Amino acid sequence: MQAQQRQQQLRQQVRQQRQTLSLAQREQAGAQVAERLQALAEFQQVTMIASYASFGAELPTCTIHQQLAAPKRLALPVLHPVVAHQLLFLEITEATVWQHNRYGINEPELRCDRVIPLAQLQIMLLPLVGFDRSGQRLGMGGGYYDRTLAAWHRGELPNLLTIGLGYDFQQLEALPQQPWDVPLQLVITPSKVWDFRR
Ligand SMILES: Nc1ncnc2c1ncn2[C@@H]1O[C@H](COP(=O)(O)OP(=O)(O)O)[C@@H](O)[C@H]1O
Ligand SMILES: [Mg+2]
Q: Does the pLDDT at position 198 exceed 90?
């Protein structure tokens, strides 16, 4: 089977399994992941955090966002208005106006004065469909994070730590790797912090 077909099959399997979780199970997993994240020294040391507004049955980020307090700052992605299949990160404040993008995902209204350049982000929390034993990430298939993090992958943004968030069953056997795929440094699931650096 071709790598791309196999990936598509894996996406379907994991997403179906994720759909079977009750709201309570999702929220509990989100709270467990939030606790592990808070305990990370790297997390305690930074102030500028990029995250995602969880959509569907993705690992919920609401607990993490609620627990962020000054001096920590939160930025969330919006679909790039000019460059196709890329993300821009906007700082969230009390004045943020929310809207749905074309995928139905919650995002802050685009305001140029709220854009946080990638170079200023210290931690990025990423949603994932799957991850493997080397930290390879399987996304929804749009390649948004691969494109957004291409410069990071080339070593141009050494201050950014990438952390994928998911459920334990999202750990998969070795994923086929394409040249553009950007791996994760850490993955946090309810039962474990996976460290793929080194
Ligand atoms: N840095 C990049 N430059 C150009 N195209 C890219 C880049 N990253 C990803 N893509 C394209 O995006 C598509 C989806 O990427 P893929 O890795 O399969 O999805 P995902 O990472 O969402 O699971 C691929 O067909 C690939 O050609
Ligand atoms: Mg990819």
A: no
Helix (H) or strand (E) holding 64: helix 62-67
From 79, 146, 147, 172, the mutation candidate for ligand 1 (largest count of ligand atoms within 8 A of CB) is: 146
Is residue 92 a contact partner of residue 80, using CB atoms and an 8 Å limit? no
Which residues, 6+ apart, have CB-to-CB distance to 65 below 8 Å? Answer: 51, 74, 92
3-195: CATH topology: Rossmann fold (3.40.50)
Beta bridge partners of 192: 189
pLDDT of residue 1: 65
Q: Is the CB of 15 under 6 A from ligand 1?
A: no
Which residue type sits at 57?
A
From the CB of residue 195, how many other CB atoms can be counted at a distance below 10 Å? 13
Pick the residue whose CA is nearest to atom 15 on ligand 1: 143
Q: Which residue, among 150, 134, 157, 141, has the nearest Cα to 182 in the 3D structure?
A: 150
Give the pLDDT confidence score for residue 3 in this predicted structure. Answer: 86
